[in-house]
Specification:
The complex is a heterodimer. By secondary structure, chain A is α/β, with parallel strands linked by helices. Chain A has helices spanning 67-73, 80-91, 111-124, 137-150, 167-176, 188-200, 221-236, 257-260, 264-285, 297-307, and strands spanning 16-18, 32-34, 53-59, 95-99, 129-132, 157-161, 179-183, 208-211, 246-249, 287-292. The longest helix of chain A has 22 residues, at 264-285. Chain B is 40% helix and 18% strand. Chain B is elongated and about 80 Å long. The chains are: A alpha/beta, B alpha/beta. At the A-B interface, helix 7, helix 8, helix 9 and helix 10 of A face helix 6, helix 7, helix 8, helix 9 and helix 10 of B.
Amino acid sequence: MGIDVNFGWSSTIVKVILGATKSNGGTRRRSYQIGGGTTLPFLETTPDSSGPLIAFEICDDLQNWSPIVRNYCRDVVNDCGEWAHAADSVYGADMIRLYLTSTRQRNFSDIASVGKTVESVLSKTSLPLIIEGSNEPTIDSEVFLKCGEAGEGERLLLGTAEAGRYRSIAAAAMAYNHSVIAQSPIDVNLAKQLNILLKEIGVARDHIIIDPYTGSLGYGFEYSYSAMERIRFAALKGDSDLAMPIICSAIDSLTVKEVRDAEPALQDNIAVQWEFTTGLAAAAAGAEIICVRHPRTIPLLRKAFVSLKSEKIVAGGQ
Amino acid sequence: MKLAGGKTDVDFCPYLDDAAKAILGATTRPPIRLVKLGIGERSFAVGEEFVLYRHEKTFYHPPGILFKIADTQTLDEIRTVTTRVRDESFTRVGADLRFNGIAIDNTSGSPDTFARAVETVEKTADLPLVLMARDPAALSAALMHCGTYRPLIHAATQENYKEFCALAKHHGCPLVIKGNNIDKLAQLAKDCTAIGVQDLLLDLSPESLQAFIVRSTNIRQLAITRAAPDLGYPVFLDASIMEMQDAAIALGIAKYASVIISTPLSPATARAALTLRQNIYTDPQKPIQMNPGLYRVGNPGKDAPVLMTVNFSLTFFTLQGYLESTRVPCFMLIVDTEGLSVLTAVAAGKLSEMLVKESITKFAVEDEVSHRKLIIPGYASPLSGRIEEATGWKVMVGPRDAAEIGDFLNQEWKQ
């Protein structure tokens, strides 16, 4: 045979399970296993992976959510359960990512409502969930424990742990067997440090997802793109503290100037193109969970991921 | 030394024999050949890349994106697309982003129709061209009009390469060679260079997005490691015949395509594609910086808030975007951290109370506002006390995330 391609990889990405079906103690209609990659994204010629997952992001307090989403999704946005149901049955997401933005109001104290919201979403969709809790150390512990408890057995993905505040979320994840999103500010070394901190307090490697933080297209995306590539590279070269799957959420995509100031007739299209382009390029760099907020981005990413799914390819050099 | 530094070529040495030149040349020549398309102001060069990852060094030559027209379209339609590529430009972060040229497809099969379409494009604008045809007679007719302007010829295959090479050689044009098997493509490249056509591009004929990524990545790796010098040419991608053109363009930009052909893009895709290209081809070793100074958002008055942050362009544009959407007129005091972000500038000691003090004086902030309150980024909170002492201004620690600046201004500033 002719030309041989060798990247010199020696290791694999850790497999992480998201969501639990009935047979695994949960109530989800399916669960996913991501990770397992042994080379660069989409280069696998015989993978068993489902490809990147598409998570649709919703929230329980719309104050800082893009009006583009509110206008497009209409009334369902006022009820997390209904919104999650639409994301599942109408928009076609693989996962729902619920942001408990209500907990980010000043002096928030209604911890019981957190549990109710999570329960309502769990009852209205049977897809695996990602839950984003509070952003305030004084209430983190209570909020995350409530989330963890409400989703017991469901193998949730809880977010977001950072270097300065990861104990509450890690405690909740370990108590109820959930996984954790570990976010660092676009830096491969900080990502590694945080994973080590999580490991030291007892979070298992196969319960961590790396969030290197995604800058929006045109607003720092290139830094995130390279951070993802570096993480994947380090992982494949054998660094076990970076060998976890990556999540990409370019949360500012719908508020960047290009989208916000777009002509009204074009605004949805530009919003969708911004999310789509970012998500696709991030997947090529190594992200395995792609989060979006505009429903119309989902079918586009889905179609692209199908065309990126392994088939028999005449490549030569194999 | 010059040779090792890539500043000259072995071919210029009068003392070396051919065998020595071949050995030295192989190790000093860029692993991917530089190929130039078109002439004049809008011409562009691709290739001469050295790395698989942009963070290892940088990607040097952004892919040209050319709009495709069929020679069966009306001359008016052809003129409209050509004019658009000639005139359209988006300004982002101080750079003008443009599409790069026109690809004309010999859909009609007729040499005369093809030549007329090419002539129409030529008369409308001086843009790099790609001539896409299967019939050497059609190419020959088109090259009568544009042969001296270095159009790219598409595409030679194992069956027709001799005729295509003859045309490319005669007109001094770069040539695309095409095949879906990289072993065979390497052989075809060898055959073409043996005839004397050196400026080649590789069309990998991808059947799917994955086929493109697999072949393009393998070829880049083989070329830069010099494992297969015969594959050391830039990659050509016709996204317009892929199942998902938008996805093919984005992945082409990310994964090593150097010339990308697409149908004329919608405004949304056009902006996203050009922005992605700008992002991926930004040199990671040189953060884009803003000039330090006092910037206005809206028409701020004497009582408007002053927000201090660093001169990293992304920090600036992100904060500016959120400030504009809050509709609170204000001042942005941009201090010189040499392009470092807030977090890194604080960690590296580039952002200090003295820098803030000097900037307030230098940009005459005290003349602009009647109050003495400074809002600093959340990540700069460790400096708040020292800034207060050094400047005499009252410091308010803002949010860490620019997205929350609206709430902050509404709740904290207005009180």
